[in-house]
Protein 1
Amino acid sequence: MKLIFSIAALILIPAISLAEAPVTDGPLGFVLWNSELIQTTADRLEKELGDKHMVYQTIGNYEGHSMYLVLRGKTGTSEVHETESDFYISMRGHATFLIGGELTEAEMRPRKQQRGKSVSGGKSHPIGPGDILHVPVAVPHQIVIGPDEPYMYILIKLDEEPITPKRASAL
C-alpha cells in the first residue's frame, strides 16, 4: 500500500507544482499567470492577512514596470509618485479610493515617492470587483478600507526606476 501512495505522490506532486507556477514558455520576459494561479495566490493572501494592514505577492518586476497582487485589510498611508503611474484592477472586496487634493503630513521616501497620513481635498470614489483605475504621475491617492471587508487588487506600476528584467517566479 505504501508503494502505491509513493508512486502516486511522485506522479502528482510535480503536476501540482507545475500548476502553481506561471508559464514562461516563450521569449525572455514572456509570462502567463492563469486565473487558477491568481485565485490560488489570492486565497493564500487572505489566509495570511490576519490583522496586518497589507500583504502582497510580487507577480513580476521588469525594466520600468512591475505587477503585484495586493490585499489590504486596513487603510494605509496616502502617497504620491513623482515618476510613476499606477493601474489598479479590483479583484475582491470594496473600498473607497481618494484621488487628487494634497497629502497631509507628507514626507519624502526613496524612489521619488512621498507618503502622508491622508488625502485632503481629493475626490472620493467607491470601488469594487471589476473596476479599473489609472493614477497619473504626481497625483495624491489613497485606498480607504472599511472595518470589516479586506480589498484585493492587482497593481501595475509604470515608469518605475529601471529594474533588470527577470524570468517570473512562482506566485
Protein 2
Amino acid sequence: MSNKKMSAEPIEKFDPTPSPWAEPRDIRDLFSYRLAYLVRLNDRHAQTVLIEQYGITLGEWRTLATIRCLGTPSLRHLARTTQQDEGLLSRYVTGLIKRALLEKRTSAEDQRVVELSLTEKGEALHGEVMIFAWKLNQEMFTDLSAKEQTHLLLLLDKLFQKVAKF
C-alpha cells in the first residue's frame, strides 16, 4: 500500500448532510452528488496508487477484476454487467491484452463470440491489486464503530435494491 494518504480535507467543504426531504440550497445538498463526490475522492487516491505501484489505471483494474469475477465474458456481457460504454471497455481490454494481462479467444459454443480471460500475469496482478483494494476499502471504515459499519452496509444494500428498480 502507498505511504500516501487520502487528504484529510476534501477539496470541497460540506455542511452536514440535510434530509433528502429538505429543499436543497444547491447541488451539494443532494445525496447523489455527495455520494458521487465521495467516490471521486476515493477513485483519485486509488488511481494514483494503481498507476505508481502497479502500472495500471483504475478503469483497467476494474475491467480486469470484473472479467476475473465473470469468468470468460464477452465484451458485450462485460459492458452490460458494469453499465459502461462498450467502446471505453474495448480500449481498456486492448491495453490489457497488449500488456499480456488478458487474452481473448473464440467461444467454443458460438464462433461469433470472443471471450476474455486473465492470463497468468493478469491473475498475479489481480491478486496483488485485490489486496490493495481490500485495504483501501477497510481504511474507509476505520472511523466508524462496528455497529455503524454494519448499519451503513445494510443501508447501502437497500439503496442498491431501490436504484436497481429504476
Protein 3
Amino acid sequence: MKNKAVVIGSAALAAMLLSPVSAALDGLSVDLGHSSESTTTLRLGAQWDFGQTLWRSQGGDLALDGYWDLAATHWGSLDTASIDASPVFRLNFAAGDQGAQAYFEAGIGIAWFSRSRLAPGTNLGSSLQFADRIGLGLRLANGNDVGLRFFHYSNAGFNRRNSGVETLALHYRFNL
C-alpha cells in the first residue's frame, strides 16, 4: 500500500511542477489554527496564481480562478511538521461597495508529515497524506486576503491505519 501512495503522490507533485505555473511568486500567507489533536498550528505558504480566469458567469457576478499553494506547517505540541502542495480553485463573488470581494475555495493536494504517529490514538499510517481543504474569505481592497480554512489530512485508505487529522485556521495572504 505504501508504494501506491508514493506513486500517486509523486505523480501529483510531478504534474504540479511541470504545469505552466508562473515563475513569479504572487503571494505569501500565514495561517494560525487549532487542530483536532488540540494543538496550535502555524502554516506558512507561498502561492502562484493560475494567471487566468477559468470561468465567468454570464452576468459576471461569479468567476472561477485559482492558484498553486506550497506550505509548511508546524503542529505545535505534537512536535511534528508537514509540507503540502495543492492546486486551489477559488469561486469569487462580485466585489462589494468597499472593494472587498468574497470567495469560496477548495483544493486537494499532497502532504508529507515528519512523523506518522502524532499522538496516542492518532496514527496517520504513513508520512505521505492527501491534503483536502475548503475555505471562505474576503479579498480586501488592498489585494490581500483574510479568511477561514478547514484542512483535512488522511492517507485515503492506502494504509489500514488512517486516523487523519484536521485543523481549522484563520488565514491571511499578502499579495505581492
Protein 4
Amino acid sequence: MSSKPTRRLDRVIIRFAGDSGDGMQLTGDRFTSETAALGNDLSTLPNFPAEIRAPQGTLPGVSSFQLHFADHEISTPGDAPDVLVAMNPAALKATLQDVPRGAVLIINTDEFSKRNLAKAGYDVNPLDDGSLESWHVHALPLTSMTVEALADFGLTRKEKERAKTCSPWACCLGSTPARLKALSRS
C-alpha cells in the first residue's frame, strides 16, 4: 500500500462547523486541548448562532469553532481557514465563502440528504455539481464511520450518532474507538 507524502506546515487554521447543539464547540475545545498539549501556540474563535433555537440544518443555526495553531507565536484566530470540517449542508453553505480556493474541505456526506440540502437552500448537491472543484474535498460518511467504530461498545445508535462530532477530531488526531466511546458519554 502506497502512502501519500506528508508536508510539515508551520501553521494551520481549521474551522469546525455544524448545527448548534451538535458539539462544534466541544470538538473545537478538545482539538484545542490536544494542540496545546503538543506544544503549539494557538488562538481560537468560537462562533455561536444568534438564534437561540434555530431549526436544525438551517443557515441561522450554524455554529462553528475556528482554531489557528502554529509552531511559532501567533496572535489571531486567523481570517481564512486552511481546513473546513462541515458536518452538514448548512454548515458548508454558511462558511464556504470564508474558505480560500485550494483549501481542504472535510464534509460529512451522511447529512447531505435531499431534505437537508433543501433546508440549506441548495437546489442541487454541491458534492455532485462540480461547484467544489476549486477545493480539495474529502467527502466522508463521518456519522456512519463513527457508528461503525463504536459497534462493539454497547452504545445505543443515538449515543453512537452523538459521537459524530468527535469524528473530525478523530480523523485529525487518530483517536481510537475506545476514546470515541469515552467522548460520546461526555
